[in-house]
Amino acid sequence: MDSKKVWFITGASKGLGLSLVKQLLEAGQYVAGTSRNPAELHNAVGENPNFLPLQVDLANEASVSAAIKTTVDTFKSIDVVVNNAGYGIGGSIEELTDKETRDSFDINVFGTLNVVRHVLPYMRAQLSGHIINISSIAGIAPATGWAVYGATKFAVAGLTEVLAADVKAFGIKVTLVAPGAFRTSFLTPDSLSIAANSIDAYKDVHETHARYLKMNGTQIGDPEKAAKAMIAVVDEPNPPLYLLLGSDAYSRAITKVENMVNEFRKWEGLTKSTDYQTV
Amino acid sequence: MSNQKTWFITGASKGLGLVMVNQLLKQGYNVVATSRKLTDLTGAVGSNAANFLPLAVDITSEASVKEAIDATINTFGHIDVVVNNAGYGMVGGLEEVSNAEARANFDVNVFGSLNVIREAMPYLRGQGSGHIFNIASIGGFNGNFPGWGIYCATKFAVHGFTESLAAEAKPFGVNVTVVSPGYFRTSFLDSGSLIVPKNPNDAYQNVRDSQAAHQNEINGNQPGDPEKGVAAIIATANESNPPLHLFLGQDAYDMAYVKMDAVKSDLETWKELSTSTGF
């Protein structure tokens, strides 16, 4: 890192969040890390005067607002926000209840929005900052059996694209990170949520889930390298809006782009048939 | 019981939904049309035909949606084409839009559609056929719409779950299409339809400019003809291999291309960093 910055990282007790926290502390940065479970966070990170552990319920706006205020009170600024908290949810749309669906949006989308809403007043005032929203390759090219997860991560991509345009005038940078499969606890039963109501007819969906769960522990992506890449991006004068992480994510994204362009062309005639005649 | 296909259309009292109801009735289809208020619907459509079933439905209530789907089956014996058309626009910076305002937009644009899909799928699966159209927006594909962060997030989410739904519904012979209209000359941008935040913030001049441009310059001058947009959707329903993504309008086509080029450019520029994260 070029200079000392204050980082605010949600979901900091495990996965990419934890790797980020550890690398940043090692580099002498100030880090506020949030988790639902303060003991887990403390055990994972240990004592460090530059670390501010915060117990936060991201779906609760008051809890988020208090955490951001504590961060600024403690470190005097807030420079980089990483909306990292989130969890995977599997199931067909029919199998997942309204409640299960909304619960995942609460964390993956509304939690991120709560953080963005409360951090922007500080970043606007200081005319600087970088917001990194962790989406997923599923937020660009979703897979069978993960419709709701994909929807939450697409939503993050959407709000991030617009946010980048909205806050550019204030000198605030915005990046969407879309990781592929990384060797974290993401695919463990503790983290991953699967529809409680299973409908036998959705064989393909269930086979996909079994395949993903089997992948646990052998994911190609190294979380330490992902954290390093994110830190590198923050030092860039012109960071990307879209940062894919992992060769798997990269190929899926490239394939998606090519498929989309082919589809545009195939249906071009119908697409362009709907405008009023210009005189 | 009728041999004609039965269409189920939400948000049918105005805009593309209303145009669709009228075209379909003229073509002899069975049409189930939903709106929050029955009088809005009957007033707008003005048909007492036996093939028309107007229903008052709150799509954010799963029970209300279930009742409507049941009524459809009881009346026409089957449900063939579902059009998740209900939705509304919102323009406001992410800092300005309250948690409640953001959630209200998701309630209709995202969770409402998911309620309909969840309740319709058992019938579509049972009969081994059907077509679900989810009406998104070009703003659900390209987020370069300053101030439209929440709306774009909802429509990106629709893109995300539709892509997965296509895969999960395919084994049952159910087709799925996400429709992304550009600007169409409907009441979408009218002050009664377009929602703005209750607590705007003076700092977001770019958002106010975007709002003013949409309300004063774009509204009434949209290039898209709703009659032609609807005709394109109906034509798609009659295709044996319909597209997963259907963009409507030259403007949507161009913006979709721009988006793919931008992502491709980010992918290529940052390829080395993106693919540096494997073990």
From TrEMBL, chain A:
| Keywords per UniProt | Oxidoreductase
- Top-rank lineage group of the source organism: Bacteria
Q: Which residues form a coiled coil?
A: none
- Which InterPro entries would you find in this protein's record? NAD(P)-bd_dom_sf, Sc_DH/Rdtase_CS, SDR_fam, SDR_oxidoreductase
SUPFAM superfamilies, alphabetically? NAD(P)-binding Rossmann-fold domains
Q: Which PROSITE patterns match?
A: ADH_SHORT (PS00061)
Q: Which Pfam families match?
A: adh_short (PF00106)
User: Can you say what this protein is called?
Assistant: SDR family NAD(P)-dependent oxidoreductase
Automatic annotation (TrEMBL), chain B:
Similarity comment:
Belongs to the short-chain dehydrogenases/reductases (SDR) family.
UniProt name for this protein: SDR family NAD(P)-dependent oxidoreductase
> InterPro entries from the xrefs?
NAD(P)-bd_dom_sf, Sc_DH/Rdtase_CS, SDR_fam, SDR_oxidoreductase
Superkingdom of origin organism: Bacteria
Task: Report if keyword Zinc is assigned.
Answer: no
| Key words of the record | Oxidoreductase
PROSITE patterns the record matches: ADH_SHORT
Which Pfam family name is an example for this entry?
adh_short
